[in-house]
Design a protein that fits this description.
single chain; alpha/beta; Rossmann fold; 5 helices
């Protein structure tokens, strides 16, 4: 399936994903039942909507993405919102070389994992686990294979397998808010670190 989504273009991201992110950030965080905390990392932060929402609610936030134009837009949006959030260019499969730090209480992925495939999936899981605090929570929203926008997608079984070591899955809920015309292309997952 050819993709209609170009992750390297902040304008396309904003048009296709940003409109969902702004509207769904509060619902996504609320679904996860996440209490206020200290350190949060958003992987694949795009133009920053989840980071901004979390910063407004007292979190110390770092967003990481590999698209420079998206990070420029994220910084501008955070400035307009008058919140402090740090945005770093980096590869989510190599977070140690992105210099984002570690020991995060919360790691948020709203639409990054489903864009990876092959060995990048395992590298992502290792990278996320390496920067997580011993009692961290990880919340993921991921499209299934064949879903909207032509991203590769990831199955529930794959997500469970990726985080079987060192994490306990607390929930997996069908995402009805991201579908259209009766489609339900994704799921939200909540994991808790177990060391």
């Amino acid at each position: 399936m050819p993709t209609v989504y170009n992750a390297r273009d902040a304008g396309n991201y904003e048009r296709l994903m940003g409109r969902w992110s702004r509207r769904l950030a509060p619902l996504f965080i609320e679904h996860a039942g996440i209490a206020d905390g200290e350190e949060v990392l958003e992987v694949g932060c795009g133009t920053g909507d989840n980071c901004i929402y979390l910063a407004k609610h007292g979190w110390t936030v770092i967003g990481v993405d590999y698209v420079d134009s998206a990070l420029v837009k994220a910084r501008a949006k955070a400035s307009v919102a008058k919140v402090e959030a740090t945005f770093v260019r980096g590869d989510v499969t190599k977070l140690d070389s992105a210099d984002v730090g570690d020991n995060f209480d919360l790691i948020v992925d709203y639409g990054c994992l489903h864009s990876l495939k092959g060995s990048d999936l395992e590298a992502y899981a290792r990278a996320v686990t390496a920067v997580a605090a011993p009692t961290a929570q990880l919340t993921i929203m991921a499209f299934a294979p064949g879903a909207l926008l032509g991203v590769p997608g990831v199955t529930s079984d794959e997500v469970g397998r990726l985080f079987a070591d060192g994490w306990q899955q607390l929930s997996s809920v069908e995402e009805t808010t991201t579908g259209r015309r009766g489609q339900t292309p994704g799921r939200s997952y909540l994991f808790e670190r177990r060391v």
